[in-house]
Predict the 3D structure of the following.
Amino acid sequence: QVQLVESGGGLVQPGGSLRLSCAASGFTFRSYLMRWVRQAPGKGLEWVSDINSGGGSTSYASSVKGRFTISRDNFRNTLYLQMNSLKPDDTAVYYCVINSGTYIGRKGQGTQVTVSS
């Protein structure tokens, strides 16, 4: 069955960095567009970043552009989000989401990122 498992979240000070991972299984990962979204406490889902199937095309929300980098390893079936210069406003649960095809909208259980001093 389709499974997405996020990891790498945690508590970090403002200005710090984290690298999130999303391990995918149960579908042909390399054929699907992927996305990161986040949900801050008391708020709705917010789009963060997209990547195409080959990894050569990416896009970012203005709030994270220049600080976050999305990437993927189609051999390891893993999606990544490198987050630098973190701010308290980046505090949220981060989800990886399948962004095309049969399983569009499917997401994992999320990983908590807390940015605080």
